[in-house]
Structure formats: structure tokens, C-alpha cells
Design a protein that fits this description.
The protein is an all-alpha fold. It has one domain: Hydantoin permease (Orthogonal Bundle). Helices cover about 85% and strands about 0% of the residues. It is globular and about 55 Å long.
């Protein structure tokens, strides 16, 4: 029984991590935007965000069991009340669509920069693969995450280990950073956690409803949150080694070229896997929500969702990330406060 609980916990942790780690995290752009530009203070911010991921990730899933919520609409009704819950669901739905566009745009940037394949071909290949996986439902989602997430953890920790070996590592780690936006420095850990938790809720709520075991969920949330914290720290200590890190579209790829060039081609595939897990997580949450109100075949709903994501992906990846993530992060702060108070 204990073994079964831990297997379930590992599956929850893998989906939790895979949903949150998408295009922005995998490429390094997101960590730079919210943490690394602040130098040493960004390191402290990561610890704050990590604590929120552990505590509030568990709280979302346990509350979903308590109120028998099967979708993020039902969970929002519990959190915000019936009327405001509808508004929150509307906002969250478009957040998920927008971020799916960001993720798909990230796959296009990766194909273009790393493999010299036109961005739109890369995006369309990702959509085709996502469609096939999503036809299998939650089992497809679990299978992809359980495969990709362990590889991701090993790679990021290895890259961080290479960064630590650099002769000026400790001097760089304690630098104050290049950004002077003091208000962003203090709000970034909360807006980052809030944004990602509000999105992950779309997957965590139906997942918790299916699993139902409270002990398994507590273990899964702790494991997922702790590993997310380690991954954020590993990414940060690697990225701050780059001069003018904010100028790169895919900064983590530059780190790999510099610190572990032999793994560069492997990393390109791994980074794709990281983005892909987040894409299918978001699409799964959107499909589950649409099915509450529409009796259309799942394949039709998937076509609609992926088509909307493709249209949004035509905007520059860096511009999308710079605009959508901070904006949605602040909107999600309301979600964070209400969740904390419940």
C-alpha cells in the first residue's frame, strides 16, 4: 500500500513539474525574467517561490478533493464564489490559451535556432504530436511526464554542477544583478508562483479528483514542489554565468554550448520535451473545461484549442513572454491570496 502511494506521488510530482516547466523555464528566459536579473536576490526569491509551490500545490489538490471539484471552473466557484468564480474562470481560460501560444512559439524558436527548421513547421509538428497524445487522455499525459521529467532533473543538476566548477562562480553568485526595478524584485517570487499555480490548477484539480488519496497527494505535492525548487536553483546558478543574460532568446542553450558542448544536441531534444509537457498539460485542462459545457467530440475541441494556440504563436516568442507572463502573474496574485486564506 505504501509503495502504491509513493508511485502515485511520483506521478503527481511528474505532472506538477511538467505542467509548470514550459517554454519560459526550459529555455531559461522565464528564470531570467523573474529571478536571475536580480542576481543574489533572485536566489532568495526562488526559495520563496519554492515554498509556495510546496504548500499551495498541496492545498489546491486537497481542497479539490474536499469540494469534489472536477474542473477549474468548479474550483474557482469554491475559491471566489459563484459570480466572481465565473469571471476567474473566464480569465484563467484565456490565460491557458495565451500560454499555450507562448509554449508553441517556444517550440518554433527552438526548431529555427537549433535545427534551422522553419518555426511554423516545428509548431505544426508539435501540434500533431500533442493531438495524438491528448487522444489518450490522462494516461497519455502521465506517460509523457514520467518519461521527460527525470531526464530534465538530471540534466539541469548536471549543468549546475558544471557552473559551480567555474573559477569565478562564487563571486558571480553574490552579485546584486543588473536590474534596478526594486518593486519587481519584491513581487517577482509571488507573481511567478501565483501565475504558475493558477495555470497548474487546470491539471491538478482533475488529477486530485481522480486519485482522491490525501496522503498520496501530500507526498506528491511536497516531492513536486521540492524538485521544482531544486530545478529553479540549478537553472539560476547556471544562467547567471552568462554576461548580459537577458539579451538571449534561449539563454540556456548558450549555457549548454559553453559549459557542456558535447550535450548540446541532446539538450535541444530535452528542452523540446520540457516545453511539450507544458503544452499538453494546458491543452488537457482546456479540453476538460470545454467538455463541461460542450458535448462536441474531444477531437473537435482539440482542433479548436490547438488552432487558437497556433494563431497566438505567430507573435515573437520573447515579446509574448515579456508581456503575458508578468501580466498574468499579477492577475493570479488574487488567486494566490484567496487560496492562502482558505
Amino acid at each position: 500500500m505504501l509503495l502504491k502511494s509513493w508511485i502515485g506521488a511520483c506521478q503527481i510530482a511528474a505532472v506538477y513539474i511538467g505542467t509548470i516547466i514550459g517554454a519560459g523555464f526550459a529555455t531559461g528566459k522565464e528564470i531570467v525574467q523573474f529571478f536571475s536579473q536580480f542576481g543574489f536576490y533572485g536566489l532568495l526569491g526562488i526559495m520563496v517561490s519554492g515554498g509556495l509551490f510546496i504548500f499551495l500545490g498541496a492545498k489546491i489538490m486537497l481542497a479539490a478533493i474536499d469540494v469534489q471539484a472536477k474542473s477549474f471552473e468548479e474550483f474557482n466557484a469554491y475559491l471566489f464564489g459563484e459570480k466572481l468564480g465565473l469571471v476567474a474562470t473566464f480569465v484563467q481560460f484565456f490565460m491557458l490559451i495565451g500560454v499555450t501560444g507562448v509554449m508553441l512559439s517556444g517550440t518554433g524558436a527552438l526548431f529555427e535556432e537549433r535545427f534551422e527548421i522553419p518555426a511554423n513547421i516545428g509548431i505544426l509538428l508539435s501540434i500533431a504530436a500533442g493531438f495524438l497524445i491528448m487522444k489518450k487522455g490522462i494516461s497519455g499525459l502521465l506517460a509523457v511526464n514520467v518519461f521527460v521529467v527525470p531526464l530534465m532533473v538530471i540534466f539541469h543538476i548536471y549543468a549546475a554542477g558544471k557552473a559551480v566548477e567555474q573559477p569565478d562562480f562564487w563571486q558571480i553568485i553574490f552579485k546584486e544583478g543588473t536590474a534596478d526595478h526594486s518593486w519587481k524584485l519584491w513581487t517577482s517570487p509571488f507573481s511567478y508562483a501565483a501565475f504558475n499555480l493558477a495555470l497548474a490548477q487546470a491539471v491538478l484539480v482533475p488529477l486530485a479528483f481522480e486519485i482522491k488519496d490525501r496522503q498520496t497527494i501530500k507526498r506528491g505535492a511536497f516531492l513536486g514542489g521540492a524538485i521544482l525548487t531544486c530545478l529553479m536553483l540549478a537553472s539560476h546558478v547556471s544562467l547567471i554565468q552568462l554576461v548580459n543574460v537577458a539579451n538571449y532568446e534561449i539563454p540556456m542553450a548558450q549555457i549548454v554550448e559553453w559549459l557542456i558542448p558535447a550535450f548540446h544536441f541532446v539538450y535541444a531534444f530535452l528542452i523540446y520535451g520540457e516545453i511539450f509537457t507544458s503544452v499538453i498539460g494546458n491543452v488537457y485542462g482546456l479540453k476538460q473545461q470545454l467538455q463541461v459545457h460542450l458535448s462536441w467530440p474531444p477531437a473537435i475541441l482539440l482542433v479548436i484549442i490547438f488552432s487558437a494556440g497556433f494563431l497566438l504563436s505567430q507573435i515573437s516568442y520573447g515579446a509574448l513572454l515579456g508581456f503575458l507572463y508578468p501580466l498574468f502573474g499579477f492577475i493570479s496574485l488574487v488567486f494566490l491570496v484567496l487560496l492562502w486564506k482558505k
